[in-house]
Amino acid sequence: MDVTVNGVPREVLEGTTLQQLLSELHITPTRVACEVNLKIVKRAHYPELRLAEGDAVEIVQMVAGG
Amino acid sequence: MPLRSSRWWPVDKPLEIAGKTYRSRLIVGSGKYKSFSLMRAALEASQAAMVTVAIRRINMDRSAGESLLDYVPPGMAVLPNTAGCYSAEEAIRTAHLAREAIETPLIKLEVIGDPKTLLPDVEQLLVATRALVKEGFVVLPYSNDDPITAKKLQEAGAAAVMPLAAPIGSGQGILNALNIRFIQEIAKVPVIVDAGVGTASDAAFAMELGVDGILMNTAIAEAQNPVSMAEAMRLAVQAGRLAFLAGRMAKKQYAAPSSPIEGVVR
Question: Could you give the ipTM of this predicted complex?
Answer without folding.
Answer: 0.93
